């Protein structure tokens, strides 16, 4: 893996070598979701993007500071999983009629269930629950009960406590069971809407595959954002296929080695922060001018993921295949959101899921990358509000405006499921 930078650079600190510094930059690529080698010119922001970001937001706090009532769930191996709950206002429940109603298209009958809808958000690789900042602000304003959690090894959650030093890597199936533990602890009763971004969407699919009864009895809606049901080994991240394939063969071993020298890698990461920032922007966003505060917010989340966690999770993605699990969502309201400029989980992966779920709403967002929920929150929030209304959540979920997006008046393009070749 080679990372090239142009322009003057400061002398390297004695504590790390040039190869280590390049390794740190390479890990930045992985952390951004581009698990492949990249040759990158130093990316600089134009004068228009360098302007100071707007700080007066119509939110209850700056990025990453929205907090709910904390709790801890425990995975099957004892790993502590941190979650937070934003509670809905207490209301007198309406009487439940002794009839059954059909949800979304009438393909599956489900009893009307008492209690408020709880929306459970699962974040992506090398992120944490704060990646849902704009959605959290919107749902909080709308009075929707929501649960946000940190996947193991990310954010405030613990590491796999029974995993030996050279033990097996994390699997997507394990993440599905982690999500079940969070649901059991934070939302043990009542209807659920499950929202997942990238790895979080894969986690939702793994939950459905392993716990079909839970989906059948309690899930009222699904949102899959910038994710994939499989085939990630074929993604080339907008780079030449030959180089990507060569790096992909070597990368698992390199990551394991780097994970054993996490202290040096982290220092290398810091020393190559300017290169990392450019890579994060390239693989997270597609807009010509992304608010630098939003970009830095994403960068900080990615930087906070330890290298050994990056190494632990990486092998799970090539092995991920949950296309068959999508059948568990038949008859439910399903929202699929894809950024048209996503280089990590390209729009074709969303189209594949739409073919498996022909009743799903597929929304392709123009000028959007992998972190579409941060780049175009007004679009994602509007579609999510519609999904929640169909799932029985309180109507009128607010959006937070276009902060972080250069397309304040952009409209999502609803796509028909693509024809099979």
TrEMBL record:
Gene3D superfamilies: alpha/beta hydrolase. Residues 395-421 are annotated as: Disordered. The chain crosses the membrane at residues 22-44. Residues 118-377 form the AB hydrolase-1 domain. Residues 402-412 have a biased composition (Polar residues). It holds the Pfam family Abhydrolase_1. InterPro entries: AB_hydrolase_1 (IPR000073), AB_hydrolase_fold (IPR029058), Epox_hydrolase-like (IPR000639). The keyword Nuclease does not apply. Keywords: Hydrolase, Membrane, Transmembrane, Transmembrane helix. One of its GO terms (molecular function) is hydrolase activity. PANTHER family: ALPHA_BETA-HYDROLASES SUPERFAMILY PROTEIN, HYDROLASE. This is Alpha/beta hydrolase. The lineage of its organism: Bacteria, Bacillati, Actinomycetota, Actinomycetes, Kitasatosporales.
